[in-house]
Write a structure and sequence with these properties.
Layout (H helix, E strand, L loop, with lengths): L7 E5 L4 E7 L6 E7 L4 E4 L5 E7 L2 E5 L2 E4 L3
Antiparallel strand pairs: 1-4, 1-6, 2-3, 2-5, 6-7
The structure holds tryptophan.
């Protein structure tokens, strides 16, 4: 996979938001879970290891596709 260039931004709107990275390839499983408290921000990329990201809890997510709020 080419070097990723884009980032996604996740801002937690409540305590205990989980940002979960899922593995790339035939075996899709959680490989990392990051807990964010209110107003914490995570900036992340899709990488050789990460093909999907799951966000649990109230957050604002910005990507090149736009901005969305979870939990509304
Ligand atoms: N080691 C992981 C990777 O290189 C780190 C990571 C990148 C990650 N993007 C993520 C973890 C998104 C959770 C969510 O793929």
């Amino acid at each position: 996979m080419a070097q990723p260039t884009e980032y996604i931004v996740i801002k937690a709107l409540e305590n205990g938001v989980n940002v979960i990275g899922l593995t790339r390839g035939s075996d899709t499983r959680f490989h990392h879970s990051e807990k964010l408290d209110r107003n914490e921000v995570m900036i992340a990329q899709f990488t050789e290891h990460t093909s999907a990201v799951k966000v649990r809890g109230k957050a604002v997510i910005q990507t090149s596709h736009g901005e969305m709020n979870t939990g509304e």
